[in-house]
C-alpha cells in the first residue's frame, strides 16, 4: 500500500551576464533571427530538448534554437534577458510574482485564445497558475513538481528505525543517525533555495496556508505570523540537533549533490522536489536498481493547524511567449504550444523518466509504465492535496527573493533569530 510512504524499485536538475550567449531571441536581427528557447539541465529537460528536436524535424521553417543552463544560472540570466528585450521566444518561468512582473512590464503576450484546447487537457489547479486577472500568459510545459521526502531504506534498516511520520519521530531519527555517524538529512545549502522547502512545509503544517497567503497578499507585518516564527525556531532546533550534513553550506543542488549523498548512504534523507527522481535514474542507476530509494510526505506537526496532505513545490514550469520576439517568432512559439506540446511521444518520454505531466486522466498510462509506484505516489500527492503552495521564492514579489534567500540562510547558520528574520522580511514588503 503506497499511501503516504513509498519504497521504490526501478526497472527502467551563479550570476552571469547575457554577453556571449548565442541565442538572441526577439532582440536579434529580424532577417536572421529564429525562434529560440532556453531550458534547464538534466532530468525532464532532456525530454524537453528531444521534443524540440522532433518539432524541428517536422517544422523546419519554424526550427527552434535551444540552449540549456543550470537552474541558478538560468534564473539570473533570464531576468537580465527579459529586462533588456533580449528574451528567448519561449520563456521558462515558475509563475507567481515573476509572471506578474512580466505581465505588468508587457514582456509576455496574452495566449488565452490560442491555448484554449491545450488547457482543457490539463489539471485546472495547475493551469490557474499561468493566469493573471483571468488572462492566460503562461501554460505548464513539463511535470508537476511536489516536494517530498526521499530516503535510503537500507540506511534505515541498518539503524533499526522506521521512517518518521511526525515531528517527534523525526527528532528521534536525527538522534539515532547522529549516534551511528550518518547525516540524518542532506541539504544543498549552497544553493539557498532548497532551504525554502523546510520553511514552507513547516509554516504550512503549523499554521495552514493562511500564514503565507498573508505574505503574498502584502499584509503589513505578515512575516511576523506566529507560524512563520515557529517554523524558523524549528529549523534552528534541527540545525542544533545536528540534523544536517555540517558541510551543507557548500553543497549545491545544480549537480544533485544532496540527493547523491542519500544514494551513497552518507545521508539518510533529503527534502527535495519530484524532479530529483528522474535525475537519480540518470545519474545513480545502481542505487535506483537496488530498490532502496523510498519517498514519503513531509511529517505532520502535532497540534498544527495545517492539513498533512497539503504540499509545497512547483505546479510545473511554464512557457510564456516573449512580447519582444518578432511576429514570426511569436507565431512559431504559439504553434508549438497549441499544436505540439504534450504530444503522445512527449508524455510517454516524461513518464518513462519518472516525470508526471499535468494532464488529467493519466491513471491508465501510469499503470502501464515499467515502474509505476513513484509516478502513482506523486500523482496522488497532487490530486489529493487540499493546498499546493507555490515555492516561496516564486510566490513572493521578485524584489523580495534575494532578501528571502539570504535571511533564511542566516537562520540556518544561526546568525539571526527567528524574530530578526521576520523583522528583516517585513521591511521588504512592497508598499502600495
Automatic annotation (TrEMBL):
Coiled coil: none
InterPro entries on file: Bact_solute-bd_prot1, SBP
Highest taxon listed in the record's lineage: Bacteria
Pfam families per UniProt: SBP_bac_8
Keyword annotations from UniProtKB, A to Z: Signal
Leader sequence segment: 1-25
PANTHER family found in the cross-reference section: ARABINOSE-BINDING PROTEIN-RELATED (PTHR43649), BLR3389 PROTEIN (PTHR43649:SF14)
The protein, known as: Carbohydrate ABC transporter substrate-binding protein (CUT1 family)
